[in-house]
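Appendix B, example 12.
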Amino acid sequence: MKRLRGTRRAFGAALGAAAWLGLAPLALAQDFPARGKPIRIVVGFTAGGGTDAQARIVAQKLGELLGTSVIVDNRPGASTMLAAGEVARALPDGYTLLYAPSSTMAQNPHTFAQVPYDPFKDFTPISMGGRGPLVLSVSTTVPAANVKELVAYVKSRPGQVSYASFGAGTSSHIYGEAFVKKTGIDAVHIPYKGGSDAAKDLIGGRVQYMFDSASSAVITSGTGKVRILAVAANARIAALPNVPTFAEQGYAGLDLPSWLGFYGPARMPPQVVATLNGALAKVLAMPQVQEFYRNGGYEAGGSTPEEFAGVTRTTYERWGAMVQQVGLAKQ
């Protein structure tokens, strides 16, 4: 009898899965989002950080626009891979979304030996969220007002100058190694457990420079103990209009794209994707949201799902080439 009940349960689960893969998505798509059913945005960082703050203002406005509650669920850990893995395994009904930085899809697969998801098979790209490059920040204990002066300073002290990163294999580490190779300097890498710890030691002068997120750099430069020398992008950003790019200072090639965007699990119904994409486009164009992103060193802006899929693929390929160039082994 127990075996029969177990068989019935397994059969029922199989029918449920079949229904989900067949007619269920069509029915759900027609009344998405159902009133009273919350949409969850999973973020791979702790509450209070820049990415979390962006997700929360978008969640608030998105909920008002769609007429349902939208909550932010913080699942930090493993360089955002815990959050991404959870969303990859969720039902593709539009009620579980991921707000992730470009590193989640474009960098982690190149730098970690075990990644619990495939960036292209396990997700549905919905929309770009914001663009915010890394920047080169230097302690004011270093007498350098631009990249050329920093390079000269480090070259005059081989092996004595250290640079911080968010951790081994992170974007700030890869940029740091690429900078070392491009300029021919001899600097010591000091990996930290996160960006905030690295930034604290930069402010304190215990490390001399780092590649930091624009949002963090805006805050640290406000202390008067950190100077921003360059933007790792192909153009200056609105949040730091007076900070030139690397290319403007004679160091081309350090302009890998850095962004954040919204994904859902694979196989989401097209109608649900279209509803979410349209709503996100309206939210990201709101002046209040635009200003919020800009104050944090980012530029808010949506995209079509197809455009976002293309950006994900291109960024993945460029990060792969950069990782291979610096010779970074998988962690």
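The chain has two domains: 36-131+258-326, 134-249. Residues 134-249 form a domain with the D-Maltodextrin-Binding Protein; domain 2 fold (CATH 3.40.190.10).
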